Amino acid sequence: MIGSKALSPSLGVEFTGVSDPLDDAFVTRAAEALKWRGVLLVRGLHLDDEQQLAFSRRLGEVVSLRGREIFPISLDPAVNRTAEYLKGAFYWHLDGTTDDVPVKATTLTARHVAAVGGGTEFASTYAAYENLPRKDRERYERLRVVHSFEAAQRLVKPDPTESELAGWRTQPTHEMSLIWRRRDGRRSLVTGATADHIVGMGPGESRALLDELLDWTTRERFRYAHDWSVGDLVIWDNTGILHRALPYEENSERLLHRTTVVGDEAFA
To answer: Sorted alphabetically, which keywords does the UniProt record give (predicted)?
Structure first.
């Protein structure tokens, strides 16, 4: 029998007793929990690539990343040619903030884990918004933020070369509301490493407010930290859950396999 329990008071569900992840009853429960709890965990499921893809397709259309439906998360350039850019994943972020429509969900399965570190943390932007004092909700209501790839990469390389900077700036920027008014009536905060500046605000004041907001959103009360074991499956709602990798050695064999489910709701 499939059981479930909360991963933390603010977010997350762990499912137990899952023998067939493609069972209609489980898929229905998983989709509902993903919407309302943001992060799902099934320990020791040991899905192979085809099983992971089949499950992901029950959640929506799977998009290829650099030509791969199964994308390897590794800091080893021999495994992932874009490993250098993955260092940006050590900072809190949502995926797709420079797109009109962000990805809906991400699945990860653990193939190898780091000997030390290498966990993944999640923070609910729904819970962070819902617990804001009223004065802060009113303060943020009309603010708009520009997101950029450059902002995230500057956290990794504060002093880029001219060539690196030019490369970052080939990527589009995206302006959006700080508060995302969702079509189901809920609201969440759009923040993280790609948040470059607040429109119409001076650089210093803008940076201070964005840092304050990120600090609020990632407080322990809104977080869950997952310590990976081989075979774990984790799925999260990318539209409402900030995430980041915890530090681990670059020569670690840590390897996660990722699928990405296409989004269907534009930032607004």
So the answer is: Dioxygenase, Iron, Metal-binding, Oxidoreductase
